[in-house]
Amino acid sequence: MADTMLDPGAELERLVDIMRKLRAEGGCPWDREQDLRSLRPYLLEEAFEVLEEMDRVAYGGSWRTFCEELGDLLFQIVFHAQLATELGEFTFADVAKAISDKLVSRHPHVFGDGQRLEGAEQVLDNWAKLKAAEKKRKTGREGSVLDGVPVAAPALMRAERLTEKASRIGFDWPDIASVRAKLAEELAELDEAIAADDRDAIEHELGDVLFSLANLARFVGAPAEDALRMAIRRFTARFQYIESALRAEGVALGDATLEHLERHWQGAKAQEKALPAPSWVPRAPVTTLRLGVADLPAQRAFWDALAPRLGWTRPRGSDPLQAVYEEGDLRFVFHEAPSAASGMILTLTAPSPAAVERLRGILEEIPGGRVIQHQAGRLAFQDPAGLVWEYAPSVE
Questions:
Q1: Are 190 and 204 in contact (CB under 8 A)?
Q2: Lowest mean pLDDT across 26-40, 53-67, 242-256, 269-283
Q3: Nearest to 291 by CA among 327, 328, 329, 345
Q4: Angstrom distance (rounded) from CA 218 to CA 183
Q5: Phi/psi at 5 (nearest 5 deg)?
C-alpha cells in the first residue's frame, strides 16, 4: 500500500541534494573517492538485489523490502548522474528528460496523433520501426535489428532477447510445435556428438540446445533466465533439506548412499508441494487469525500506519467493523470484543537481520506500540491491544 501523500518530485529532489552533499567538500570521504569504474560492482550488486526481492515478493515476501532495494538501485543512478554533473556532462534532470522524451516519442498511439494500436504485438513492431528511425537520424544509418542487447548480459537472457528482436521483422517460427521440433532436432545432434566423444562438437551442439530452449521459453512466456533461477532456488532448498535430514539422523554428509539421498530428495519435493503457491497465482490466504481487541479504532490506527511499512495489504471492501490485513498467506482480522486477545504472542519471520533493524526504526515513528525486546537480530513489540509480535530473521 503506497503512501499517496508523498510528492515524488520533492523526494527525488531531496535525494539528488543528498547525493550532492555527500560528494561536496566536507562530505563523505568514501563517496568523494568513487568514480565510474569503482561504482560498477555496486550497480550490479544493487540490480541483482532488486531481482532477488522480486523473487521474494513472488513467493509472498514483503513489498516494503522490495521498495527499499529499488531505492538502493535508484541511488546508484543518482550517484552516476552526480559524477557527470561535476564534469559538466549532464545532470540527473537530463537523464529523466531523455527517458521521458524517448517514451513519448515511441508511444505516439498514447501521447500523439498516431494511429491506435491493437495489442502488444503491434506496439512492439511499431517500437522497432521508431527506434530504427531514431538511430538513422542520430547516426545516419539504421543499424541492426539486434542492436541494444548488452553483450555482457546473461547468455540465456541475451539469446531470448535476440530472438525476440529478430521476430519483430518476421524472422521467427510459426508456432510452438515448430520450436519444440527444433529443440528435439538439436538434442539428437547433441546425442550424436556425445556418442562420438567430440569435445568441440559437444560444446557446439550444447550451445544450440540452450539457444533453442531460450527460444522456446520466449514462445511459452516463461523467461529462461527466470525459470533457471527458480530451478536453482528449488535445488538449493531441496539439497539443504537433505543436509538437515542427514544431520538429524546422525549420518555424515559423505556417508549416505545415493538411495538414501534420493529418499530425502523426494521428501523435500513433497514438502515443497505442501507449501503455498507463489503469489502470482490467485489464491485466498490459507490461514485467517481472528483477534478480538478492546479498542478497535486504536488498533486500526496503529496497524493502518504499520501494515504498509511492512508490505502488508488491506483487502478492498473491508468490513468497517473489522480491521483486516494480509501478509503472504496470513490474514489478520481484528474485531471489537469484550474478551480481548491481549497477552497472545505471534511469531513471524523477517527477511533478514537488517529488516529487523528497519522495523525497530519504523516502530519508533508510530504511536500506540512499544518495543519490549530487541537483541541478537530479534525484535518483539506490543500493539495497542496488548498483542505481542515477535520477529526473527529467516535463515537462507
A1: no
A2: 269-283
A3: 345
A4: 13
A5: -80, -20
